[in-house]
Amino acid sequence: MTALTLSTAAAPGLRADAIVIGVAKGAVSKSGGLVVAPGAEAVDKAYDGRLAGVLETLGASGAEGEVTKLPAPAGFKAPLVVAVGLGAEPEKDADYDGEALRKAAGVAARALAGTKKAAFALPLRDAGDLGAVAEGVLLGAYSFDAYKDNGKAAQGGRKNGKAPLAEAALLGAKPRDKEHKAALERATAVTEELNRARDLINTPPNDLNPEAFAAIATAAGKEHGIKVQVLDEKALVKGGYGGILGVGSGSASGPRLVKLSYTHSKADKHLALVGKGITYDSGGISLKPAGHNETMKCDMSGAAAVFASVVAAARLGLRVNITGWLALAENMPSGTATRPGDVLRMYSGKTVEVLNTDAEGRLVLADALWAASQEKPDAIVDVATLTGAMVLALGSRTFGVMANDDAFRSAVVEAAEEVGEPSWPMPLPEHLRKGMDSSTADIANMGERMGGGLVAGLFLQEFVGEGITWAHLDIAGPAFNEGGPFGYTPKGGTGSAVRTLVRLAELTAAGDLG
Fold first, then answer.
1. Is 288 labeled as catalytic in the residue annotation?
2. What is the 3-state secondary structure (H, E, C) of 134-157?
3. Closest C-alpha among 61, 57, 41 to residue 49
4. What is d(CA 513, CA 162) in angstroms, rounded to the nearest whole number?
5. Distance from CA of residue 294 to its chain's centroid?
6. pLDDT 10s digits, 368-387
7. Which of 60, 137, 288, 340 has the most neighbouring CB atoms within 10 Å?
8. pLDDT digits over 206-264, tens only?
9. Catalytic residue (choose from 288, 350, 397, 491)
10. Is 399 left (phi over 0), alpha (psi -120 to 50) or beta?
């Protein structure tokens, strides 16, 4: 990853390959033109206060995601100035919000691929801004190149033939300030684990099956003091985990249920996280149509998010007990695969009539949710790329949030907004439950087609222990970016929900979440 340093140096005298500054669209009440953001005063002064005009001549508007490069002024040790758009200038007496800084830093870091060192002179009002810029740099510089250039990528990484930005100095930061140091440490831990989740999501399914994922989790647990328990096929059969076994029955790669336990000696709250981990989803016997299989390596994004979040919490030493459950299986068609019409007996004892084997995520989650419920945690949050219906409802950048408690649902949405992950509260209408009635079993895994994302949430709710606060995050839209990169988000796996889960863990540790 890109190395980050905190620096009090002035931009003109800093040895670097580029100086990154922020620019914005000026408010109408002012000039209405381009505005140079705080942090770039020394750079603007070197242009005799005419930097905004020079950039406008070059076509810069300050729009979010815009990058304009120009030669540095005389006397600067860095040869290049990179102006990145922050969007609209804040209202009077307001500051640039953290997400705008995070996006700008990410865009600049990606634009500087192939550069050894860059200095970021973006607005830093406080430690929160510092953390946002640090996160943006580390997330924007991400590149997954393990399978490119005949292995050369493993020797330093490449992005379009260029290595990611090697070092970033954050100007205006205070290296000896405890809050600034803590913000940098937090940003580093969270983004390193989020990028690990991205790596897992991007890894081809022939190299990441349930057993391989479990091995990675086990190794990480040993490194970070997390207790890891892996249930293989025999243990799942013995325990009666019919949902996970049913989904994995068609694959040569057997399913796994991985339990990650992070504990703090002074914790008095317990948060359980459950992740859907379908390492490849063909749809099973209900085979997906052509054009819908190519990205199905990403169907384990929920488990990747849970895994990364537990490790990040351990690295941060959060005062909360966290149990992560990774429900891992590969959904394949074969002579041993579960058929439409089969009935599975779940870990909870309930029976489920499988009407569609491509509605498999809810089956593995149901077993994991019931397992998590047996420990009576204060709250359970599950994360899954669960339904195409949620993508139709909210698009490709927003995840839906459902819950059995309105206040908790609001708290999850607020936490997501705070860290810059777009989400939207969704209901669980009781009338949709009737569509899952089965004449053969306790419940069917399919219901009404309209409102399919909500139907899936209602199904999951059936497997949450009585009296336990629960939320469901359907990240089917934002988990995998099939378009071009934007902000600090790359093409491919995004690591969606990791930052939200870590923030929920922090709030729980502080006693501010229920």
1. yes
2. HHHHHHHCCCCCCCCHHHHHHHCC
3. 41
4. 43
5. 21
6. 999 999 999 999 999 999 99
7. 137
8. 999 999 999 999 999 999 999 999 999 999 999 999 999 999 999 999 999 999 999 99
9. 288
10. beta
